[in-house]
Amino acid sequence: MAFGLIAALTLGGCDEPDFTEAEKAMIASLSLSALPPLPPDPTNRYADLPAAAAFGATLFFEQRLSRDGNVSCATCHPSDRQFQDDRPLAVGVATTNRRTMPLAGVARSPWFFWDGRKDSLWSQALGPLEDAREHAGNRTAYAHFIGKEFADRYERIFGPLPDLSGLPKNAGPLGTETEKAAWKGMSAEQRASIDEAFANLGKAIAAFERSIVHEPTRFDRFADAVAAGREPEGEATLSDEEIHGLKLFIGKANCVTCHNGPRFTDDHFHNTGVSPVKGLPEDRGRETAVAQVAADPFNCLGAFRDGDEEACGELRFMVKSGEALKRAYKTPSLRGAATRPPYMHSGQIATLGDVVDHYNTAPGSPRGTTELHRLGLSEREQAALVAFLKTLAE
Predict the structure, then answer these.
(1) pTM above 0.85, yes or no
(2) Is the peptide bond before 110 cis (omega within 30 degrees of 0)?
(3) Residue 4: what pLDDT?
């Protein structure tokens, strides 16, 4: 049965006031309706080319783009789970050190991976292809494969493939020692031509990934009704407990400080005192990644960027050192998160309730300083927060 307008905007029996005008404005800002059109990617001139997106979709689901022929991008980003798996650590050719990140809305982010070691969607797509634990491939192997299987599609979009005659079957700067030696044995011109073809694969995959978006949820329907001054009805209603959780989210619990905007993320990096995983190497988060992204030949300032350096403000002016970078990780979107446990960068926390408890108790960080402060939420308030978070997945 639908709430009346007053009942919908209050916590019946909880002695809570209606939403203030400021709260209503904040709620409206969180709706997908507030999301502006996706801006172009000036570093990828193929980003909005349908043929590139179609080719990128083929590559995204192509298992032969891996050393063992069993791993594709979709292995860790299954489309039936909002393009994120349910493992604490991603598993490709081998097990990685971090959890898979969701892809919905990813094209709007300025940084990629948990630590931001990539600064464009197309350069992000290249990382797993060469990672020994993910696809474990190498650059000349990919070029030979494209030349054999997809030459026509590639060349209709990007122009001629490089001359592959005489090139090693397996060579790359990040592969095995044999592959590295073979890469060094190639001429500078050969390496540059293969790098360009490799970058183009990333640009095609990125064109496809730009199409992966968030779908409206019950929260969005409620937020749109509140913003329009309409009575929330049917699928636009929230329960008293869910409304209580929403008020906490934008108020006392301060969740909206980092999980803001229609994607429920500020796209920044924060130390929230998450514990390391026993048995894994030390993970320093953003602190290490700034050097990686600066040295990446496929970064925005590199030779394979389309457009000019005006598009590279994030990289040119990024914070490169300081206490705030220590064990700082990217804020993930909360959309759909309720259906995709576990949580945090290496799956350290099993349930949403445990996540809320972590933020409520604010443990110290094993390195650097946590940004969290104890919230003093009651068990009832924590349960209400969890109830609200579930409306972002329904």
Answers:
(1) yes
(2) no
(3) 38
Going by the DSSP 8-state scheme, the letter that residue 2 receives in this structure is P
Annotated binding site for heme c: 73, 76-77, 255, 258-259
DSSP secondary structure string for all residues of 171-223: --TTS-HHHHHHHHTS-HHHHHHHHHHHHHHHHHHHHHHTT--PPP-HHHHHH
- Please report which helix (H) or strand (E) contains residue 145, including its range: helix 139-149
Low-confidence ranges of the chain (pLDDT < 70): 1-17
* Distance of alpha carbon 90 from alpha carbon 87, whole angstroms: 6
Residues in the chain, total? 394
- What pLDDT is attached to residue 82? 78
Amino acid identity of residue 217, one-letter, is T
> Known binding site: residues?
73, 76-77, 255, 258-259
- Helix 188-209 to helix 151-158 angle (10° resolution) is 90
CB-neighbour burial class of residue 320 (10 A; exposed 0-12, middle 13-18, buried 19+)? exposed
| Burial environment of residue 124 by CB neighbours within 10 A (0 to 12, 13 to 18, 19 or more) | buried
Q: Walk me through the domains of the chain, giving residue ranges and CATH numbers.
A: 22-35+216-284+319-391 (1.10.760.10), 50-210 (1.10.760.10)
CA-CA distance, 294 to 195, in Å (whole number)?
17
**Residue 4: how many CB atoms within 10 A of its CB?**
12
